[in-house]
Amino acid sequence: MTTLYAIYGASGCGRSLMPIARQQLSRQQLAREQDQSEIVFIDDALTEIDSVNGHRAMNYQSFLNESASTKYVQIAIANSRVREKIAQRLEADGIQLWSISADNVILMDEVQIAEGSALSPFVTITSNITIGKCFHANLYSYVEHDCVIGDFVTFAPGVKCNGNIHIHDHAYIGAGAMIKQGTPDQPLVIGKGAIVGMGAVVTKSVTAGATVVGNPARIVTTSQQ
């Protein structure tokens, strides 16, 4: 069986996730000794097959043309709207999303994470948590108990997401941001497409499309969702 895996995006995000992808593939190969596998980069700016950090790199059409019994892709694109478009293209072409997780990620009880996630080193996901597709959690981020996170949500490094928080689709949480714990009957909500700035301390719910910064976080801009 020949399986081709890919990191979609050869920029900084993709190159940072490739070592995690290698860890993931190593674990998978231990479980399936007969699997002959390779990981490549996909970069649509390329016109011919190249090499990036020791891995073959090619555009999407070249990836489709590669001979393999099964293909999986991790979308290493920071922009969540672009991630969504690529996920739709992959689905249309029958390509499966690939979830990757560093060796030292901690997952506790009753954690459900949809396909396509990328969990970087030192990420912790505690108990009774549901997370949607193509979630990115960067270095040293955590998600505490009883949180619900939507599709295409991005955590920059060092995000502190405390208990009873609901984060809707396409929200972006900046590096070092801290989100105050909600309660079971009144979760703190980060609305669809909201942006939480670097180092912000979020003490109350954020409306859809809003950008908040500071301590305590305050709205600086809003956009139509």
TrEMBL record:
Catalytic residues in the record: 145 (proton acceptor)
The record, for InterPro entries, names: AcTrfase_PglD-like, PglD_N, Trans_hexapeptide_repeat, Trimer_LpxA-like_sf
- Site description Increases basicity of active site His, residues in chain: 146
The record's listing under Pfam families reads: PglD_N
Looking up CDD domains in the UniProt record yields:
LbH_AT_putative
Q: Which keywords does UniProt give here?
A: Transferase
In which family does this protein belong, per the annotation? Belongs to the transferase hexapeptide repeat family.
- The protein's name in its UniProt record: Acetyltransferase
Q: What is the lineage of its organism?
A: Bacteria, Pseudomonadati, Pseudomonadota, Gammaproteobacteria, Moraxellales
